[in-house]
Amino acid sequence: MFQASGTTGCLFLSGILAGCLKYGGTGRPAVFAGAMTALACATIISQSYKKEELAGGLAGFNAILVGCAAFTFLHDATATWGLLIISAILTLPLKLYLDRCFTRFGISSLTLPFIIATWALLYFSQATDTAALYHPGTSEDTCADITFYSALQGLMKGLSQVFLIDSWPAGCIFFMGLWVAERRAALWAVAGSAIGMATALCTGCPWEEIAGGVWGFSPALTSIALGVTFRTSAAWHWNIAVIAATVFTALLQLLLSPALTCMGLPVLTLPFCIGTWTATGTRHICRACSRHTCKKA
């Protein structure tokens, strides 16, 4: 999650493994195996590109998300493994192409390669019946009542759901991974998850969903991106802009989820991408207009 740290990466992989030991009420070790396979494929293939854009671990983060998604949505079958490897490799050219397109607007592709590759994987599997959809059971940790314990679990699950893991212990490990690399990123991640939960609660979303962390992962990513990674100002009013963008991200998920569900597609991290693009793109345009005005003056 925006951290170029080997220690953080090891903790994240540990968190994925911990979550897969008890995933959604049932063990899903295939999720961890898929994540590692996708990460390995993308990292190996990236060596042939020799591009600076893929250095520092940037070749693997979209692929590992595809690996987690493949066995979150599909059964562990031979066809799924084949689709996973193809989709993981596809994230590399997608990232390079999309980054070139977005650079002119002062933004990056973020997790859009993961979204496109996963949607393609799911669409192809459903259209050709090559891999059956997986329907997870209800998590034993899900609580229908609003309690401090369920709220705390939901807060941590908001971090774990970034990797499609329904596990609050995994979320705690992800928090530690962020903490050792950049404490501000860890704090903004928790703040973003909390803002997403609060926004969903205010809009009438079921508490079971909120406590499951599904409304926290995109806002958490937006908070880290704008609060730390792409931050350009230390002024206090920037924090207000980050909070506003995080709320906007949660509202986007509220609008996009039903439409994508009708098409048989998960929303994934699309709200995070649009929310972050909107904020960074607006800043880029304002700066360009300001420079243009100064030149004319």
From TrEMBL:
Q: What is its main location?
A: membrane
Stated membrane topology is: Multi-pass membrane protein
Keyword Oxidoreductase applies = no
- Presence of keyword Transmembrane: yes
Pfam families reported in the protein's UniProt record: UT
Q: Where does the UniProt annotation locate this protein?
A: Cell membrane
**InterPro entries reported for this sequence:** Ammonium/urea_transptr, Urea_transporter
TM segment ranges: 54-74, 80-98, 105-124, 185-203, 210-230, 236-256
Give the record's keywords alphabetically: Cell membrane, Membrane, Transmembrane, Transmembrane helix
The family line of this record is: Belongs to the urea transporter family.
Q: What is this protein called?
A: Urea transporter
Could you tell me which species this protein originates from? Answer: Xylanibacter muris
Show the taxonomic lineage: Bacteria, Pseudomonadati, Bacteroidota, Bacteroidia, Bacteroidales
